[in-house]
Amino acid sequence: MQNISRLSSVACLLALTACASHPGQHAASGTSAPAYKVGQPYQVEGNWYYPREDYSYDETGIASWYGEAFHGGTTANGEIFNKNELTAAHKTLPLPTLARITNLDNGRSIVVRINDRGPFSGARIIDVSQRAAQLLGFEQEGTAKVRVQVLADESKAIADATRHYGSATPVEVASAATAPNPDSVTVQTLEPVKTTPAIHQELIQTKPVEEVVQVPVTGSHQLYVQAGAFTVLENANRMQQKLSSLGHTKVTEAIVNGKKFYRVRVGPVQDVPQADALLNKVKNAGVAAPRTVVD
What we know:
alpha+beta; 4-stranded antiparallel beta sheet; 13 strands; globular
């Protein structure tokens, strides 16, 4: 990407730092020591997760939120969790990362700073702070169908700043040393953002503003469990046959970065509890890493 585009993103980021405090917000207790972190592959409740730098990330699924019970605690990259700030937890994206989250039920869309790991319950793809859930309009419901899109240039700028001027904590990068599936772990090389140390220091502390954008949402937004995405149609067909007893199972084509994939999905189901139940059934059928998607 050209430098002028990258520097434009840096300018946008500096505008975001004006949101450091808002009426009614308060800082969490403790000392924040943010560090850039990708992290080693890790296992939770028998499931392996493979953190990696993925600046083209654009996924749909179910969001949940967390608040008071974790307020003031330390996030996975050493920051202090504040339920009143616009932050989030994700299983694999780099920390910190800026991402846009859109509630697919009401069209409310905000930017959050991903600085923690999780969620690990049910079929959730992201866990947002209580304040983020309020702005997205699903605090009372507890969950929502969402789209999560990484802001690539902005996130790369923050990553570069934190690598060079953040905490003295050594930067962790993905490794396949102890993971059972090393081919799934990839690391991208970041192009440095050419700017000054002073700007880097500001970027490290960048926080999204409390700005809700109303975007048009179309489609039925039905819930499915995706068992896998294959480059070979025969493999997708075999998976479809394997899962056909669990409900309607279909194979659909998708082009991702110019490459054709065959996605195997079971569903649709009506609500989040049904999605959680179906996800468990697919896991019990021997599928290693199924996930819930919204389509």
